Amino acid sequence: KPLVFSGVQPTGNLHLGNYLGAIRKFVALQEEHDCLFCVVDMHSITAQLVHEDLKGQTRSIAAAFIASGIDPAKHIVFNQSSVPGHAELAWVFNCVARIGWMNRMTQFKDKAGKDREKASLGLLAYPSLMAADILLYRATHVPVGDDQKQHLELARDIAQKFNNDFSSRISDAGLGIDMMVGEEKVSGYFPLIEPLIGGPAPRVMSLRDGTKKMSKSDPSDLSRINMTDDSDTIAKKIRKAKTDPAPLPDTLEELEGRPEAQNLLGIYAALSDRTRMDVLAEYAGRQFSEFKPALVELAVEVLAPITSEMTRLMDDPGHIDAILKDGSARANVLAEKTMSDVREIIGFV
Ligand code: AQP
Where on this chain is 'HIGH' region (motif) (predicted)? Predict the structure, then answer.
């Protein structure tokens, strides 16, 4: 049965990119799948070790999951550091993965900056921990934004190398599962991961520059819509969003070379669960001076109830901690089973 895993780092205010690229998809997937949604606090110390309020940030991500509609009674909502298997499996994967694989990661290059020697070892090994997060539960389906595609491909490579390196031990212990690699049927312990990246806004771009990803670390707050922004702030940011002077065209092809227009259209489509073509059919020929107020109305309609529910939940940190504790206990049971198999396969006494 397909199992869904995804995580969000507690590294600052969540924004519309995190919501549309990840959290909104979690909510849709929970109807048909068993899911684990994780606040990946161990990832958050890879780029910056000391955080002013890591506990508060962790609770606010959990609150965002629940306020967006994730049901923590049916699915597992927990924080990464409370399940020791993440670190244990990441160590094994550090020994499976090759340094060259990590050096090629664009996120590492971006986040490490010019002086890579000064980046933490954790930042380099980030994808190895991410592979462990998913494979600790032998999860198959991973909803993420487009920026995580390369990391998921690497997680697949790690799973495949582990399966190959230990193939006879896996089959001797009777722990293999059958899976298809292309046309070929193979057996291995870890499943091959399916990234779930599609939708009309797989990469939400900055409101100030349509060629840059919307991101927590952009110094301009006008570049992003935070999930905690009030209605007036959302309206101001959309009003000030960069656009070009042309009206919306009839076809998607005519939007080529207009990144800001593409971005706003994608955001509208994702927020309204429609295709970009469908939205274009309604707004073709209209100026952004007409489209932006419609986008403001839609964004406020979707985000305001989530923001107010997040605020309500954050007023009771004890309740959030209890949800995380319960999720961690349930995650730990699944993790222990995998780790006991992995120790057996490797030959740890
Ligand atoms: N702009 C985006 N568009 C679509 N999806 C996005 N995600 C992040 N930014 C966008 C997705 O959100 C999930 C959680 O992301 P994360 O917690 O790993 O944070 P991040 O990717 O480091 O987020 P930021 O905002 O981009 O942080 P900085 O500024 O530190 O780089 C993931 O599924 C991610 O794909």
Answer: 10-18
